[in-house]
Each structure stands twice: as C-alpha cells, then as structure tokens.
C-alpha cells in the first residue's frame, strides 16, 4: 500500500510532517509522497522520519494553477531540490495568499467577525495559511460548530467571505517542477469541471505544456471515472498516479491515508510500474534524497 498525495501542517494538514510519516508507518504504507500546497517546508522533516520508519519517501508539492474553469492543481513528485524557478513560484503564490487573507479578514469584519492576520499567524505555524485555517479559527471562537459549516456559510465560492486565490501559470509551474528534478502530474483532473466529451482534448493541451502524468485515482472521483482517467493517461503516453489527498484523521471523513477512489487501497503498481520508472528515467538511479 502506498500514497502519492498527502498534506501536513506545513500547509493545511493536521499532522506535522513527522507525525504524518509515523502515521503512515502505523498504517503499513511502503511509499509516501508529501505534497503540501505551495510549499516544500515540511519535506526535510518528513524525509528524516521516513528513514527512521523505513518508508520510501517521495518529496513533492501541490501548486495552485491559474485556470479559467473549476480548479487546477499541479503535483510535483520526486523533487530533488528547490530550484530558483520553484522558489520564485512559491514566493509569488505566498504573496498572493497574504493578499487574499487580508481581503478575507476585511470581509469577515464586514460580517461582524473580528479576526486579525496576526491572530491567524500566531495560531497556525504554517507559511501557507488559507481557508481551512480560517474555518478552524471560527470553530475555536465558537462562531461555527464544525469547519464545513464555516465553508458553507462564509468561505465557499459565492459566499460572503470568498476571495479567489491567485494561481501560477501552468508553463511556469511545469518549468519550476522539472528544474527541481520532479515530474509534473495533474492532481484530481475532474476538478477542472470539464465535460467528458471535451476532457481528452483538454488533457492533450495540458500535456503539451509539459505535464507528464494524471492523478487518475483520487477520492473525489468514482471508481468508473478513475478507471477511465487511468485508461486516458495510458492512451496519451502519460503516467497514472493515485493518492488519498489525506489532510488528517479529523478532516474530510472520505479521505484515509493509503486509500483512494471507492475507498480502495492504493496499489503498489502506481509506484512500481508508473512513478518509479519515470523517476528512474530522469535521475538514472533510485536515490530520492531531497536537499533543501
């Protein structure tokens, strides 16, 4: 059992990088990728713990991409370092998040809720603060009972405190990942909200930008959809990956580490037959050591 998509407190997960790896070991995972949103801050800590636990660690990132429809996230899997291009991309997205958070705070104040950026930063020791952190703070203040209520009432698209997030250009993000030794893989492609009739043409367009893989298996897809995406990936000469998009045991009840679409255990083949051979072709060996 493996998992090629997970999050820690370096972005919006609830486990620290070290705790996440320990938890993966408890669940008998052989391979784990840490793919925090727009940051590589947790990779060294997770890598160190993975060595202790005997888990193959895949250093990664999940980058928010500017896209006209739905949501587009790009995974970078197998990073060897943080290139200048990736540093620039992360800094651009970090600045955008700060501006977004300031705007969300102003909107919350208009709703009669007093929250400051300093309060948010002190409560959550993460460089990529976003809506999940706002939602948790509202729970702790007693304004809502659960985090999902905060999204439903304030932060979902169309609600009073929603602010669009700035994204990187796909071309820049692909270059940033490749220059850092990683493989660009489109995360949960159905979140683009493109119809099946148009999806293959859109994936071909994305592939031509340098994206090399599709996360075919994700809890947000039905099993039949995941099978169709995997078939599409192979038809187009792309690798297919699978992940849980795990954020923590108390976050998203439908997401469990090592499990994907249809609550299926993630098969080793997504590592042994898909991602690992692709990384070997790039690096020439199976050394996945990440250097900060």
Number of helices: 10
The shape, in one word, is globular
Estimate the strand proportion: 5-15%
**Gap from first CA to last CA:** 28 Å
Query: Could you name the ranges where pLDDT drops below 50 across 5 or more consecutive residues?
Result: none
Question: SSE layout and pairings?
Answer:
Blueprint: E1 2-3, H1 17-26, E2 31-34, H2 43-53, E3 56-65, E4 72-77, H3 84-110, H4 117-123, H5 131-140, H6 147-155, H7 170-179, E5 183-187, H8 196-208, E6 213-217, H9 223-235, E7 239-242, H10 269-283
Parallel strand pairs: 1-2, 2-3, 5-6, 6-7
Antiparallel strand pairs: 3-4, 4-5
Helix pairs in contact: 1-2, 3-7, 5-6
In brief, what are we looking at here?
This protein has 10 helices and 7 strands.
Model description:
By secondary structure, the chain is α/β, with parallel strands linked by helices. Helix content is 43%, strand content 12%. The protein contains 10 helices and 7 strands. The protein has helices at 17-26, 43-53, 84-110, 117-123, 131-140, 147-155, 170-179, 196-208, 223-235, 269-283; strands spanning 2-3, 31-34, 56-65, 72-77, 183-187, 213-217, 239-242. The protein has a 7-stranded mixed sheet. Helix 1 packs parallel to helix 2 and helix 3 crosses helix 7. The two termini are 28 Å apart.
